[in-house]
Amino acid sequence: MKLRSLLFVPGDRPDRFAKAAASGADALILDLEDAVAASAKVTARAAVHDWLGQGGPLPRFVRINPVEGPLALADLDALAGTRPDGIVVPKAEGAATITALDALLTPRGLGDVPLLPIATETPAAIFQLGSYGAVAHRLAGLTWGAEDLPAAIGAATSREADGRYTAPYEMVRALTLFGAHAAGVAAIDTVYPAIRDEAGLAAYAARAVRDGFTGMMVLHPAQVPVINAAFTPSTEAVARAQAIVDAFAANPGAGALQVDGRMVDAPHLKQARRVLAM
Question: Do 240 and 260 contact (CB within 8 A), yes or no?
Answer without folding.
Answer: yes
